[in-house]
Write a structure and sequence with these properties.
By secondary structure, the protein is α+β, with helices and mostly antiparallel strands. The chain is 51% helix and 17% strand. Bound molecules: adenosine-5'-diphosphate.
């Protein structure tokens, strides 16, 4: 970059210099021609005076020094010429400067002479007897002027080249140095500083990108950490029932279980296996939702019907807990993924039953409202402490770990609910009172917006 700036400055400086030189030469040329003309006029006046006073004898031994003097008689015949033979010369009456001198006393012109090849300046003066003294001189040619100036011009050009070289390299360095000195990690510190005014938009752009990069980096790190935690949690959650199963199986294998205990042992193996199955099913469901439900088909469905089905399938669980479940509301059409909508109601109802008290109740309500479908699941259960309400949607987060395991929870239910709601572009609200009960309100738009990919890391929350 520095060499490019250097070249640019150098070329510009030289071009300006050469253009100025040509301009100055033009002005000088005009100036010299002017001086030459006025000198010619003075000398002509003197020569005319001399010829008028002394006649032809004035021209004897006259040293004209660079001037050509012609004396033209009143009839136009050439009486004297300092450079050409008068006998061979034509009548000079028609010459422009002569005509002008005859008419006005003095005349001048410039042209290429017949006898000489250079451009000549002519001036003529009428004498009292009607004759005309004419002087001519070779006009200084441009090339002659340049030649005359050659030495100083070469010197100036050389000086200008050196000066332009030194200045251009200094300026280039001065421009590039502050840019090279920029600490790209802290572009903000240069805002408003003298040397950085021109590059401030660039600095701001870099700062914005740095912030974005930092954010992306943090997000990636957070996601990776959450993934690691999730994997560790999954392994831990799977290991517990697996250990139990293999322990029971080992006791049975070694014949260490009394005949009457075999059935309860088999029952324990079965319940641990179904815990594992439930966990694996939940993980599969979550990973499907992690993709934003992209490959899942959306259909027109009725949320009330889905809620009734989910409640029905939890009938046995509700009876076992001595909890009554009622579904109310009106037909609520919604376009969504039936299986995922079912998951929402199922998991909320499942929790409402699991964390209830014997004789308690669960109410599921589905209504359309302002073009949205609103699902409310309320229970008369243990409630959720306020400080835990933000965290219950995290994977494997449980308010009361042992109670959750006791009632067969995987710790993934609300996580599934949250992501299922997100896939449908909806929102979820919770209100709860310890010892009184909890209410979840899920609002789903009828035409869900597609999930945005940047929200993806949120899934792991
Ligand atoms: P789990 O499988 O343990 O039920 P969830 O993700 O479904 O996992 O719920 C997370 C935690 O939130 C539960 O362990 C429980 O402590 C609490 N919770 C969820 N729903 C309710 C509810 N309706 N009443 C009281 N606590 C609840």
């Amino acid at each position: 970059m520095s060499s490019k700036i250097f070249k640019g400055i150098w070329i510009v400086a030289l071009s300006v210099f050469l253009a100025s030189l040509v301009f100055i030469m033009g002005i000088s040329y005009n100036y010299f021609t002017g001086i030459q003309k006025s000198q010619l006029k003075n000398v002509t006046e003197l020569a005319a005076q001399g010829a008028a006073d002394a006649g032809m004898s004035y021209f004897d031994d006259l040293n004209a020094e660079g001037y050509r003097i012609t004396w033209i008689g009143a009839d136009g015949s050439v009486l004297y010429d300092s450079e050409a033979d008068t006998a061979t010369m034509v009548n000079h009456m028609e010459r422009e400067e002569v005509k002008e001198a005859l008419a006005q006393g003095y005349g001048e012109s410039a042209r290429y002479s017949d006898t000489l090849s250079d451009k000549q300046l002519y001036s003529a003066k009428r004498l009292p007897d009607g004759s005309v003294v004419r002087l001519s001189v070779v006009q200084v040619a441009v090339w002659a002027l340049i030649l005359g100036f050659a030495q100083p011009i070469c010197f100036v050009i050389l000086l200008a080249l050196i000066l332009a070289f030194v200045l251009a390299s200094r300026i280039a360095k001065k421009i590039v140095q502050p840019i090279n000195d920029i600490d790209l990690n802290k572009p903000e510190q240069y805002y408003g500083k003298e040397n950085y005014k021109e590059v401030e938009p660039l600095l701001r752009h870099i700062a914005a990108q740095q912030t974005q990069l930092k954010r992306d980096q943090e997000q990636i790190e957070k996601t990776s950490l959450i993934r690691q935690e999730f994997t560790a949690n999954v392994s831990h959650e799977l290991k517990t029932p697996l250990h139990a199963i293999s322990g029971y199986a080992e006791l049975l294998e070694n014949g260490m279980v009394k005949e009457e205990d075999i059935r309860p042992f088999a029952g324990k193996i079965r319940s641990e296996s179904s815990r594992m199955t439930k966990l694996v099913e939940d993980i599969i469901e979550l990973s499907r939702l992690d993709n934003g439900g992209a490959e899942m088909e959306r259909e027109d469905c009725d949320l009330l019907r889905i809620a009734e089905n989910a409640a029905d399938s939890l009938d046995a669980a509700a009876s076992a807990m001595n909890v009554s479940v009622s579904v109310e509301g009106t037909d609520t059409p919604i376009r969504g993924i039936p299986q995922t909508l079912y998951s929402i109601v199922y998991n909320l109802c499942d929790n409402a039953i699991k964390y209830n008290r014997p004789g308690g109740s669960v109410t599921v309500k589905v209504v359309p409202q302002n073009g949205e479908a609103v699902l409310t699941v309320s229970d008369t259960g243990v409630g959720i402490p306020e400080e835990c309400q933000d965290r219950i949607f995290e994977r494997f987060y449980r308010v009361d770990k042992s109670h959750s395991k006791e009632v067969g929870g995987t710790g993934l239910g609300l996580s599934i609910v949250k992501h299922a709601v997100m896939v449908h572009g909806g929102r979820i609200k919770i209100s709860s009172e310890i010892g009184k009960g909890t209410e979840f309100v899920v609002t789903l738009p009828n035409e869900p917006k597609e999930m945005l990919s940047e929200e993806e890391p949120e899934y792991y929350a």
